[in-house]
Amino acid sequence: MDGNDIPAGKCPVMHGGMTASGKTVTDWWPNALNFDILHQQDIKTKPLGTDFDYRKELESLDVEALKDDLRKLMTDSQEWWPADWGSYVGMFARVAWHAAGSYRLADGRGGGGTGNQRFAPLNSWPDNVNTDKGRRLLWPIKKKYGNKISWADLMILSGTIAYEVAGLKTFGFAFGREDIWHPEKDTYWGDEREWLAPSDNRYGDLTDPTSLANPLSAVQMGLIYVNPEGVNGNPDPMRTASMIRETFARMAMNDEETAALTAGGHTIGKSHGNGDAENLSADPEAAGLEAQGMGWFNTKGRGVGRDTVVSGIEGAWTTNPTKFDMGWFDMLFGYEWELTKSPAGANQWKPIDIKEEDMPADVEDPSIKCMPMMTDADMAMKVDPTYNAICQKFIADPDYFADTFARAWFKLTHRDMGPKVRYFGPDVPSEDLIWQDPVPAGSTSYDVDAVKAKIAAAGLSLTDMVNTAWDSARTYRGSDMRGGANGARIRLAPQKDWAGNEPERLARVLSVLEPIAAETGASVADVIVLAGNVGVEQAAKAAGYDVTVPFTPGRGDATDEMTDAESFDPLEPLADGFRNWQKEDYVVSPEEMLLDRAQLMGLTAGEMTCLMGGMRAMGTNHGGSAHGVFTDKVGALTPDFFTTLTDMSYSWVPVEGGTYEIRERTTGDVKFTATRVDLVFGSNSILRAYAEVYAQDDNAEKFVNDFVTCWTKVMDADRFDA
Known about the structure:
- This protein is mostly helical.
- The protein contains 23 helices and nine strands.
- It is globular.
């Protein structure tokens, strides 16, 4: 409220802190860069301290006792939130599914790897109604095991145990997900300001599912996947099938995995819509203090058991909803279906002339038989020829279906964990899966100094060495721990042909580095990084400082057979502000794209600033461009980028084409040229504050040392094996 909006009966009080999120002091400048995306890397929000080591805590976890406690919970129905048919298997499958299901391949964000379902907006998405109850049911177990199990691991494990209890032979499970402690403000879920706004808002053409705006995968704000009632709530299974195909592809799932997940996901549990959604209380984030972080309580009637309202769709899919069996196929393909409405008014499908013995029992009274249902998404599996053929294959071979679903569930719940070396626990499958981006272990026994000497004598320029190492490492994204220099996939398709990697230059440099790797027993991946280190050391020496860039050997070289080339397409950089390059002219500003890449690389605002200055000083721009190279000593690791930015003897003049000229104020002579991504480090108050640190006369050596630290962080970001 503003100062004049004092509620009646309330006394004014001095209150100078911005403690609510409705408006902030930066609302005056809505187009300003939002540095929350980088400040998230700050460790100050973590309550467990900087010395906390989750992997070490996991080593003391009694896994079998934890799993046994979860198995007992599955049938330990609580009066405050009773289990359907006395079993929570459907509840916990959904908690895990909706935690993992927000993952998207385009930028690796979302997913269940951080425990983000505890925070807004996910904790209050319409599609996540009553997952808050699942987390409260899990709380006694989380409380018991404490730091030995993260919320992220516990939620995903609960779903896996639910399927095990239901009768599925699961494929495996890995611990290793670490919790975050605040909302993920880096994740763009869409720009709608209304829950479940029509899909038209995020498609260029609603008849073309591929026109869904990137990086989104869900069809509406607040949904995990597609609208279960049909496109914009209008039933049309064929049209829904095309939406499902695109949405699941954006989650890295093929048609067979999609069909298996749909069938297996709906084999247990039920949908809840036996009441009026208008009677539900506010979502958890909007609920009153007395709700204690829970929401969606029914304000009229019992609101639990058979009277629960969640999606608005009402009913179970199968005859035995607590058992993992072929019941979904028996029901969907054993009957013809017609449109109907749930008690909450939602569109759903019901079987025609169903036999009483095929009807599921009421969740509270086994003597009462209830009508099963199918959603538009279920019907899509029947009417779409490709999905139908896959389902027929499953029907003919139930064991194949169970195995396919188990593998797809494992992929769904582990896709965002990164390489297998991050997995922990007794149930980690031994099989290497291509979506895990496997990389063989590299040698650590070779002579590092000898390799560096060969690189230095090979005739490559400083920019050849630095740019190749940078381009190899910059693909890393901390959202799903994919990419990076390990594996040297920069020499494989599709990366070797990416425009941002300057294919001709890259091929020339690799033709020099690959023989050095073969001669010395080092991996190509290690040699690429070592070459970059040699370049940085040369640049530091040119600036007057002798430094040795830290290096850890052991990277391996992936092969084409280890690489799912199609899944690497989304890792292609469309812009790299560090190398002053954009593939095309985009609606999003270059400086915004810089922040996005820096965040995915795990950089803070200060680290981003330091790296930018060093890359410019070394002259590493894409194509040899001179924009932003504010120095007469190109190739020396000096802070000249920052001293020029902060020097008032220059003026900054926009010129045609969207670039800028740096002119001497006294003569008007052009000294340098720049792009937006250069000048933002002087114009933005936050970035300028960092730039001024390195522009100070006493911080030239600090700049070199900081750059080496930041460079090493980028090169080692994917070294989970070290």
